[in-house]
Amino acid sequence: MLGSAAALVMVSGPLAAQATADNSVNVTSASPALPFSQNKQNEPAIAVDANHNSIVVAGSNDEIDEQACSSQFPSNPCPFTPGVGVSGVYFSFDSGKSWTQPMYTGYTARGCTADFSTPVSECAQNEGPIGTLPWYEESGLVSDGDPGVAFGPAPGPNGFSWSNGDRLYYSNLASNFPAAGAFKGFEAIAVSRMDNPTP
Hints:
Low-confidence stretches: 1-13
Number of domains: 1
Distance between the termini: 56 Å
Number of strands: 9
Oligomer: single chain
Mean pLDDT: 82
């Protein structure tokens, strides 16, 4: 038994030594290098369009639109700003070789990045550029992350078919926008969709 294990090591040793190129690419291309937590993403999901395999979408919890962390408030240094979404979306149209993070307009706290003395309750949240899912505030919702992404056939007069095009689905947790009552309860599942994503 020991002899066969040694033979395996001898065969796999040269294979492990082969050089490979670094093909790393930044998916969250619009995120700033600093400050934290506006440069933080986690819990990614990814899907490839079965009808056009060069189209890839990724989602993550992305805090790009949140107020920056501050050591001024040790009990809550990295708050989630009320009303600001965290469901980031990223597209590749060349099979993942390069990525883009769309810029939409929505509710944001990005304006608090340089003001580390302002508590979250006084942060200047307003309409502005966002790197997360759009149209949530207008629906009385906040995108709360935990993404799921999938492609399927688009609908048409005779039902769903790839000949009608492609439909992207993005599911995530959602909560009520402050002072809005879009649904009863604490959290819901929301699904966004887009037909025929293009650059």
